[in-house]
Amino acid sequence: MKLLNLFKTFKSDESGAVTVDWVVLTAAIVGLGMVVMTTVGGGITGLGDSIVTDLGSRSSGYENQ
User: Fold this and answer.
1) Dihedral of alpha carbons 21, 22, 25, 26, sign
2) Residue-wise burial string across 16-53, b where 16 or more C-beta atoms lie within 10 A, e elsewhere
């Protein structure tokens, strides 16, 4: 009988439910961030490379004497 009461108490206890919600929400946000970075990452690298090439081809106005 004691085991049955313990099981009923365990079943009705919701003290960890909020923690589970936060873990699921955090995992979803991290997953979304990874998808966004994977999608956008290649474009950012290409843009950075083109900026470096463009700035490297310009003169700075400083002449070494």
Assistant:
1) negative
2) eeeeeeeeeeeeeeeeeeeeeeeeeeeeeeeeeeeeee
Q: Is the whole-model pTM more than 0.90?
A: no
Alpha carbon of residue 1 to chain centroid: 48
What do you get for the CA distance between the two ends of the chain, in Å? 96
Query: Rounded to an integer, what distance in angstroms lies between the CA atom of residue 18 and that of residue 20?
Result: 5
7-54 pLDDT, tens digit each: 888 878 777 778 888 999 999 999 999 999 999 888 888 898 999 999
Sign, CA torsion 54/60/61/62: negative
Which two tokens mark 31? 């997953």
